[in-house]
Amino acid sequence: MERTPLDSATRRRMLLVLFVFLGVCFGAITARLFQIQIVQHEIYQAKAIDQQVRDTTVTPKRGTIYDRNMKTLAVSASAETVYIAPKSIRNKEEAALIARELSRILGVNEETILKKTTANNYYEIIKRQVEKELADEVRAFKKEYNLESVALAEDSKRYYPYGAFASHVIGFTNVDGEGIEGLESYYNDILVGMPGRIITAKNARGTDMPFRYQQYIDARNGYHLVTTIDEAVQHFIEKHLENAVIEYNVQNRATAIVMDVRTGAILAMATKPDYDLNNPREISDPSLIAELESLEGEEYAKRQMEIWQSMWRNKAIADTYEPGSVFKIITVSMALEKNVVSLHETFNCPGYKVVAGTRIACWKAGGHGVQDVVTGLKNSCNPVFMELGARIGGASFYEYAEAFGLLNKTGIDLYGEASGIFFDRNTIANGVVETAVAAFGQTFKVTPIQMITAISACVNGGYLNQPYLVSKIIDDDGTVVQSFDPVVKRQVISEETSAKVASMLEQVVSTGTGKNAYIKGYRIGGKTGTSEKIDQKNAQGIADKRISSFCGIAPADNPQIAILLLMDEPEVDQVTGGLTAAPTVRKMFEDILPALGIMPQYTAEELASLEKSVPDVSKSTVSEAYAALRSAGFVPSVIGNGDSVIEQVPRGGQKLAKGGKVLLYTEQKEAAPLVTVPSVTGLTPAKATAKLEAAGFNIRANGKDLTEAEVSAISQSPTAGSLAEMGSVVTVDFVHESESEWVSVDY
Amino acid sequence: MRSASKAEERPIQSLKAKTAEMDLPFFVLVMLLVSIGLVMVFSASSANAYFRFGDSYYFIRAQLLWAAIGTVVMLTTARLLTPKLLRISVLPAFLFSLTTLILVLTPLGSSKNGAQRWLFGFQPSEVAKLSIILCMSWLICRQKKKIKTLKGGLIPCASLLLLFCGLIALEKHISATVLVFAIGAVLMFVGGVDWRWFAAFGSLGVVGVLGIIKVSNYAMQRVKVWLDPFIDPLGDGFQSIQSLYAIGSGGLFGLGIGKSRQKYLYIPEPQNDFIFSIVCEELGFVGAVLIVLLFILLIWRGFTIAFKAPDRFSALVVIGITSQVAIQSILNICVVSGLVPNTGISLPFFSAGGTSLVMLMFEMGIVLSISRRARL
Asked: Both B182 and B273 in a single domain?
């Protein structure tokens, strides 16, 4: 061996050191790297990517909600979210400046903003859904002070062009753009679309790195809903419903549904009072506001939520009620279909009927005497229907109720539908008293939507439809994504029975308790109802709360449209459906039938009493005007000494009854003075006409068979005490006072 | 002293009268590591440099310059340095380090991050690493006969080592203290100081460290964060977690050179102590192991040169220098991969920094100069 400066012991020690370095230490390091890089690779990679990447969601545009004529009911527009990056705020002065200016521009509490500026992050929302003008102001502020800490992000905001219009049907969204009521909620998944994403690499300061990759995943906008709602129909329904709530002092809200009886499509659905969709959390009732102000903390929040819930509750589908006499439509349909009664058969009503030892009264104290089934329906005579109920039998009654869909939810495309409360099969099958009372619509509960759907089946040929609100789902290009055809669940009664029922309903309006729903030129059918809320008794143990309702169909010879109106606890002297609901439904029909293209067809008798348009005679000479008006059947009255007409009242084109007076002004200074309208409420047609004519007005009398006794005015427009042009037309609604079917179920 | 060493080494010198070329494998390995190091410094530092100075080339420009200087220094040293010169320089090195290590503690030294480490633009502790190698090698050669004894072996060697370590510890430069101590200990072990002392003091040290951890809340907290950095993800554990994210996301083949994401301000100063986590992220397990392999080959080759060194002193110097590279790279990789608690220890050839790179290449030059006289 060569001579070496190192002895073998030293060499051994060197080898040992080398082994420790290379074998032990680097071996351990390699193992450790293998563990981190290969074994735990995915865990660390996921965590690393999580912090390295900013995943921004691109909110798709929420779909629009249209009425059936493509009028926009709800639409989303772009807005912006204003946020701050507290960690980018350089000093206290900047924080104070941001708080002050953003508070001024956005109306957010300054203290709240100041608190957010101290957060230890890069994202604190100051305000969402900021409209463009305000957002621009924020941008200008940001630019002026060169603030990196203030930023804006895309957002969207929901607009409801008609405000409170159809609020309970359309519903609204929360700030996150999720529908939480109505169609907005039910069709949320359809409306919301598919969110897109922007994935951006960012550094540890949260700043985007432009030189790194960016990945876009496009958002797909939400689909649009084409509803069955007709904007014009809904508008008229709401107008009259709102008036009715005021006029009849309705305590517990009123609701109305307009259904196409042939398909089950809902043309209008309203609940009043309603709420503003653009501001759904605003409580307008002063007494509720006062009540809330007296509460604090949790109690406040709880009560506020209760108030909101009841305000947003769609009465047409979520509340149940005892249908009362309106239900007689169903009972008579069952009886006719089961063939347990003939149209010529007669019944005697002594004012009550004893069923299994229980005396059940008719609403008319002295009784209706001898009558057939048609007259019984016209009179809404309870003993007749108790008899029909007995003939149908409890078990069969139950089966029909089920077939008419009264035992199940209708399945309308809205959340929150209630299912009603009905007897169980055995109770009614074995209970003659129950059957008797149920036959005139008491002691069980249905929802308004169940009721109108069942009545539609009674008159449309017997087909029970599935009610629905959305007919089509379309995309941005208008391509139909999905269309909903009418669904017939089953045929409940035959077409013949159905035709008979429709004709009977017409007679109820033309000569029975439904007279107040009569309209010249239309064949209206319908049935009134006044039900006791027998589960709500007052201090004396008497159920004194009432629900007055009316269900109308038109045209009775070929039913197309049904309206169900329900007023929960009207508080006026006469609360019967015939006196409150029927006249309101008349007004609704009067407006919506022409809007739906159903034109009046007058009988000769109606034609004679018909109003005509006043010819426009302004600017013609007095003699010409005189001749024109006379030949049109009006009475001209010249005021002043001029040669030609300067102004006429009523004006050209306005409707006026034959023999109405038209004032012709020939001198400028005297033209069309304003006069106070007198009150005619409670007067007979003759007295009301005389009083209005004496005051210088023309009268337009609404109502059926005005020459009969016990007809009196219940409302007028313009209202008493207001000013109107002398000679203008005052519309007066007359009702038949006697036609009430007060139900008292004491058993 | 002089006569003793002369007597020992004269015959060997005569054997190797003619000098050969420097060791090519060692030189190639050094240049490979330096080159890869430069690439990685550029990749790792660019984002940080851009963010702090608006200039992506801020660090790499300086590093390139230092690497160039270092290469010149290395080659010059390899060519001009002789064993005699090296031996003569022991005393000046000792005195220089002693002086500078004391001076740096005076107001002449400047502090950075709470530690007094800088003197006229360089770190005395960097030079001290070489000084301890030279001095300890010299001392061991001088005490060769008595090295097994307590009086002649352990006490003089330990005194020298504790003098250096104590002075560096006063700078509060823990990593350098540990490093100098480890280099000295390796040399003492190789030089023949009885291994039982190491066992005894080693176990005493372990007990001492455990005692400190038990008593000191600060140390306890450091250990806890080391064992699970996720208990303090935004504080003490931040650097460790970010390093693990970088290494872990590298996977088998890495994200590709220059494609690190963790260098974007997640890892603080990614061009310094934590450069290896960027290496792992960009080059993956394969790349990291290849670089580890380069270090292994370099250390292997260094030991080979030491085996064949012309004399015992040179052998010990080469062992010392090679061990320094080994210990420093092992500790650095252990820190970035969470095997040992976080201390600021740089990765040889990779971490950016002027003094350390030039010093390191000077040391490589010493090894190369010795290799020229080795019987390879």
From this structure: no
- Least reliable range by pLDDT among A7-21, A190-204, A216-230: A190-204
Q: Are A588 and A565 in contact (CB under 8 A)?
A: yes
Same domain? B371 vs B351: yes
Q: Do residues B49 and B163 both lie within one domain? A: no
Q: What is the pLDDT of residues B177-194, one digit of tens each?
A: 889 999 999 999 998 888
Phi first, then psi, for residue B364 (nearest 5°) are -60, -40
Collect all residues of chain B within an 8 Å Cβ-Cβ radius of residue A22: 296, 299-300
Structure ipTM: 0.87
User: Which residue blocks in A422-561 are alpha helix, DSSP H?
Assistant: 425-430, 432-439, 448-459, 495-511
Last residue of a domain, one of B215, B243, B259: B215
Domain annotation covers residue B299: yes
Q: Where does the pLDDT of residue B12 fall: very low under 50, low under 70, confident under 90, or very high at 90 and above?
A: very low
Element (H, E) at A620: none
Q: Does residue B223 sit in the same domain as residue B191?
A: no
Same domain? For B261 and B374 the reply is: yes
Considering only CB atoms, which chain B residues are within 8 Å of A33? 247, 280, 285, 288-289, 292, 333, 337
Residue B102 has φ and ψ, to the nearest 5°, of -80, -45
Contact B248 A36 (CB under 8 A): yes
Structure tokens given for A436: 């008797």
Residue at which a domain ends, from B215, B249, B273:
B215
Asked if pLDDT for residue B272 goes beyond 90, the answer is no
pLDDT in tens, B303-329: 999 998 888 899 999 999 999 999 999
Q: How many angstroms separate the Cα of A96 from the Cα of each of A125, A141, A624?
A: 17, 14, 79
- Per-residue confidence (pLDDT) for residue A453, from 0 to 100: 96
Query: Is A325 a catalytic site residue?
Result: yes
- B12 domain residue, yes or no: no
Q: Which domains does chain A have, with CATH numbers?
A: 57-227 (3.90.1310.10), 317-605 (3.40.710.10), 612-736 (3.30.10.20)
Please give the backbone phi and psi of residue B114, each rounded to the nearest 5 degrees, phi first.
80, 5
Q: What is the pLDDT of residues A671-717, one digit of tens each?
A: 678 888 898 888 888 888 888 888 888 888 877 777 766 778 877 88
Write out chain B residues lying below 8 Å of A87, CB-based.
none
B225 and B208 in one domain?
Answer: no
Q: How high is the pLDDT of residue B34?
A: 95
Give yes or no: residues B153 and B61 share one domain: no
Length of chain A: 747
Tens of pLDDT, residues A132-157: 889 999 999 988 888 888 888 877 88
Chain B neighbors of A44, CB-CB under 8 A = 244-245, 247-249
| pLDDT over 60 (residue A534) | yes
Task: Give the minimum alpha-carbon distance from A114 to chain B in angstroms, rounded to a whole number.
Answer: 25
B305 and B342, same domain (yes or no): yes
| Residues A701/A694, Cβ–Cβ less than 8 Å | no
Chain A residues 669-728 with a CB less than 8 Å from chain B: none
Which of the given ranges, A204-208, A359-363, B287-291, has the highest pLDDT on average? B287-291
CB contact under 8 A, B266 and A52: yes
Active-site entry in A76, A325, A471, A740? A325
Domain count, chain B: 2
Structural domain of residue B121, as residue ranges?
A: 90-215
Q: Give the minimum alpha-carbon distance from A31 to chain B in angstroms, rounded to a whole number.
A: 10
Which segment of A44-53, A81-90, A179-188, A440-449 scores lowest on mean pLDDT? A44-53
pLDDT at B114: 56
Half-sphere exposure of B150 (CA within 13 A, CB side): 2
Contact B337 A25 (CB under 8 A): no
Average pLDDT over residues A52-61: 75
- Tell me the shortest Cα–Cα distance from A149 to chain B, in angstroms: 18
Residue of B nearest to A201 (CA): B261
Structure letter (DSSP) for residue A517: G
Q: Is A5 within 8 Å of B247 when comparing Cβ atoms?
A: no
Nearest to A203 among B247, B264, B299 (CB): B264
Is B35 contained in some domain?
yes
| Chain A with chain B: Cβ pairs closer than 8 A | 140
Chain B residues with beta carbon closer than 8 angstroms to that of A41: 248-252
Query: Chain B closest CA to A86's CA: distance in Å?
Result: 17
With an 8 Å Cβ cutoff, is A3 touching chain B? yes
CB-facing half-sphere around the CA of A55: CA atoms within 13 A? 6
Alpha helices in B192-237 (DSSP H): 195-215, 217-227
The answer as to whether B19 is a domain residue is no
